[in-house]
Specification:
Layout: H1 5-16, H2 19-22, H3 26-35, E1 37-41, E2 46-48, E3 56-62, E4 65-69, E5 78-83, E6 88-89, E7 103-106, E8 112-118, H4 119-126, H5 130-133
Antiparallel strand pairs: 1-8, 2-7, 3-6, 3-8, 4-5, 4-7
This protein binds adenosine-3',5'-cyclic-monophosphate (CMP).
Length: 155
């Protein structure tokens, strides 16, 4: 076990409060907690870079991050989602594609803390959950919707 006993029960409680994981049995939750590693990231850090090879899955336990994406190699990244405590990301590169489909950047001045799970454990313990396997993203970026109901552009 990589985490101390106190942390272990703290994480167990936390996972139970996250809808995606709350319905899992205690046994499976304990196994997930056993393989998680807590990582802290500073304000502005790129936790994930679009186009990079990815091997890790993240659950936010503290702070806020932004998902940003660029349409082509030469275009600027635009913010498409904001994620907070209890949200998770980084599953797509572990679902066969290998390459990261977006950037994930820390937007919280205090930094952000994530519980990180490697590819092997993700595949064994999390990858088969319906809510993870079937998550679809809107092609229209939530944050580019303007007040007139039109969109700035598609991602
Ligand atoms: P992955 O491609 O591994 O790394 C970037 C992550 O950003 C991705 O997994 C998803 O978890 C997340 N992501 C990608 N596209 C979107 C989107 N349109 N909306 C919200 N999150 C996204």
């Amino acid at each position: 076990m990589r985490t101390g006993l106190l942390k272990h029960s703290e994480y167990l409680e936390f996972l139970t409060s996250v809808p995606t994981f709350s319905g899992l049995g205690e046994d499976l939750l304990r196994r997930i907690v056993d393989v998680m590693e807590e990582c802290h990231f500073d304000y502005g850090d790129y936790i994930i870079r679009q186009g990079a090879i990815g091997d890790t899955f993240y659950i936010i336990s503290k702070g806020n991050v932004e998902v940003t994406k660029r349409k082509s190699a030469s275009s600027e990244s635009v913010v498409i989602r904001k994620l907070a405590k209890g949200d998770w990301f980084g599953e797509r590169a572990l679902q066969g594609e290998d390459l990261r489909t977006a950037n994930v950047v820390v937007e919280d001045r205090e930094g952000a803390t994530c519980l990180v799970i490697d590819r092997q454990s993700f595949t064994q313990l999390i990858g088969d959950l319906d809510s993870v396997k079937q998550r679809k993203y809107d092609e229209v970026p939530e944050l580019s919707k303007k007040s007139d109901g039109f969109y700035d552009g598609l991602i």
